[in-house]
Amino acid sequence: MASYTIIADIGNAIVQLLRDHLVPGIIVNTESIGLCTPSDRGDIVLGINLYDIRENQTIVITDMQPKGLKQLKYPSTFYDLYYMITAYSSSDIKFRSAEDQKILGKVLQVLKDHPIFTAEQLGSDLTSSQFAPKIELLHLEHDEKMKLWNVPNVPYRLSLFYKVYPVEIESERVKEVTRVVNAGFTVRES
């Protein structure tokens, strides 16, 4: 089960996975790959932007779990995380588009080859969770991508859109319960 930090852990795991496979062959510096928004990217060459979080509609657990003898723990909630990955090559204008396409091609390859996140990648203990988060390319129409870009005075740059799911955040709420300790039975003859 995962705490609320799992959202940040997944963003960092995506960054690390891409750094491991794109540096130094495609991108020179590890610091050039990072979490950012399109409007605030600094010197990032490959930006990963978490643009939406939604509650997962397919995994709904309602059963409470025992926590010791006198408490029940509320169930975890599962979420879907939505990412936009954009290349911001700083090459000469003649080569920029080709460089961006090369970077994004490698991103497609890496994320297809590594579709499931492990506990080791996330730096957390997922061993008690029955669901490992996976990453999947979204198939969005061009106008949907343009709406998601939504950066004033900055033209749209070719981007990839991914969903990471299911992402479990365990509840910290507990309910006190009283266990049955005595049972009395009366038997009557009819």
Looking at CATH, which topology would you report? STM4215-like
What's the total count of β strands?
8
Largest sheet: 5 strands, mixed
- Structural class, by secondary structure, is alpha+beta
Write out key terms for the chains shown.
alpha+beta; STM4215-like; 4 helices; 190 residues; 5-stranded mixed sheet; elongated; 8 strands
Structure report:
This protein has helices at 6-22, 93-113, 119-122, 142-149, and strands spanning 33-35, 46-55, 65-67, 71-73, 77-87, 134-137, 159-169, 174-176. It has 190 residues and is of the alpha+beta class. It has one domain (6-173): 2-Layer Sandwich (STM4215-like). A five-stranded mixed β-sheet has the order 1-2-5-7-6, with helices on one face. Helix 1 (6-22) packs across helix 2 (93-113). It is elongated and about 95 Å long. It starts with 5 loop residues before the first helix and ends in a 14-residue tail after the last strand. The model has no long low-confidence stretch (mean pLDDT 90).
Q: Layout of helices and strands, plus pairs?
A:
Elements: H1 6-22, E1 33-35, E2 46-55, E3 65-67, E4 71-73, E5 77-87, H2 93-113, H3 119-122, E6 134-137, H4 142-149, E7 159-169, E8 174-176
Parallel strand pairs: 1-2
Antiparallel strand pairs: 2-5, 3-4, 4-8, 5-7, 6-7
What's this model, at a glance?
With 190 residues, the protein is an alpha+beta fold.
